[in-house]
Specification:
The protein has a domain of about 100 residues: Orthogonal Bundle (Helicase, Ruva Protein, domain 3), CATH 1.10.8.240. Helix content is about 40%, strand content about 20%. It is α/β, with parallel strands linked by helices. It has a 7-stranded parallel sheet, with helices on both faces. Strands 7-6-8 form a 3-stranded antiparallel sheet. About 45% of the residues are buried. The chain binds ligand FO1.
Length: about 325
């Protein structure tokens, strides 16, 4: 079975780890990673979501932080701060730096991000069964900026400044994905969507992780046209974002913070949207009939990824729902 999954950072990567645990070694997984979080720092290209997927699936992640490398040290970060260079609020660990150095070196030699990601993935993903291919959503530069308002007035800040320095605790007016309209899907992305057997939208941030991938010209149409069932997993449990600040950004784009509102925002494929199936937490079971009536087959299962076992069970539930959706579609 060929499974394609869109992924952001921490939540998506953890979900994928559970997915690998329930798939057969003969299956194939393609991850389309969000690159709109990317940031140039100290002359280096940092791709947080791609790195979080590689490190999480490849065993290099720091489990407590959910990002960056375990057994990390911060000497270079301290030295940079000693020179007074900014930003000091974004932690680049010494081990993590090697990833950005290799990536930047290859980009400057003219390799596209997809080729760079293939090389970096060899180290982290090559031994996985089922095999996992990680594709950036685009080889073009796409950057999420958030329009905020504070004592300095209204201005756009890079997503990482909003997320890491401001902790999303500042009035948010809009999400602007710079370069998205001009971007093209990276090689293999559209094909991974149209030729897979199951397409999954994991519980990553619907606005700045999944939404940014879907916003790459051509991707949404590919999702709507694929023969594979399209199943999403709610990142909202009981009216609150599970991790990070999905709720804050949903409000910025006028979407209510609920699993039903996020599903409606993705839309039912039968109504011109994207979803055939939607997984909500048991605490949101009341939304199942409403969503079913809108054309989205919805199941309620425990969605909190407490540990490997609950995450694997949740991933298993998405595959079961995909099967139900596939039989719906074959009718
Ligand atoms: N998140 C933080 O909250 N603080 C950091 O200093 C930080 C550094 C960092 C470095 C590399 C990297 O790949 C991720 C990093 N993150 C940090 C997480 C990152 O902001 C988020 O994982 C994504 O951008 C959101 O999905």
């Amino acid at each position: 079975m060929r499974v394609t999954a869109v992924s952001g950072g921490i939540g998506g990567a953890r979900f994928l780890r559970g997915l690998l645990a329930v798939l057969d070694p003969a299956d194939e997984v393609t991850v389309i990673g969000n690159t709109a979080d990317d940031i140039w720092l100290f002359g280096l290209k940092v791709c947080p979501d791609l790195d979080t997927v590689m490190y999480t699936l490849g065993g290099g992640i720091d489990e407590t932080r959910g990002w960056g490398r375990h057994d990390e040290s911060w000497q270079a970060k301290e030295e940079l701060a000693a020179y007074g260079v900014e930003p000091t609020w974004f932690g680049l660990g010494d081990r993590d730096l090697a990833t950005h150095l290799v990536r930047t070196q290859m980009l400057e030699a003219g390799y596209p991000l997809s080729a760079v990601t293939a090389v970096l993935s060899k180290r982290w993903l090559a031994s996985l069964r089922p095999p996992v291919r990680l594709l950036p959503m685009s080889d073009d530069r796409v950057e999420t900026h958030i329009v905020i308002e504070d004592e300095d007035g209204r201005r756009a800040v890079h997503f990482q400044e909003y997320w890491v320095r401001l902790h999303a605790q500042v009035p948010t007016h809009d999400v602007v994905v710079v370069g998205q309209r001009e971007s093209a899907p990276a090689p293999g992305v559209l094909q991974a969507i149209t030729s897979c057997d199951v397409l999954l939208l994991p519980p990553s941030n619907p606005v700045v992780s999944v939404g940014t991938v879907l916003g790459v010209p051509g991707v949404r149409d590919a999702v709507r046209s694929t023969n594979a069932p399209v199943v999403g997993v709610s990142p909202i449990i009981g009216g609150a974002a599970v991790r990070g600040m999905a709720d804050q950004l949903l409000t910025a784009i006028g979407v209510e913070v609920s699993s039903a509102a996020v599903a409606a925002w993705y839309g039912a494929r039968s109504g011109g949207g994207l979803l055939d199936g939607w997984l909500v937490d048991t605490s949101d079971a009341a939304s199942v009939p409403v969503l079913a009536a809108s054309g989205i087959r919805t199941n309620a299962v425990p969605l909190l990824m407490r540990d490997a076992a609950t995450t694997a069970a949740m991933a298993g539930a998405t595959l079961q729902l995909a099967e139900q959706c596939a039989s719906d579609r074959s009718r």
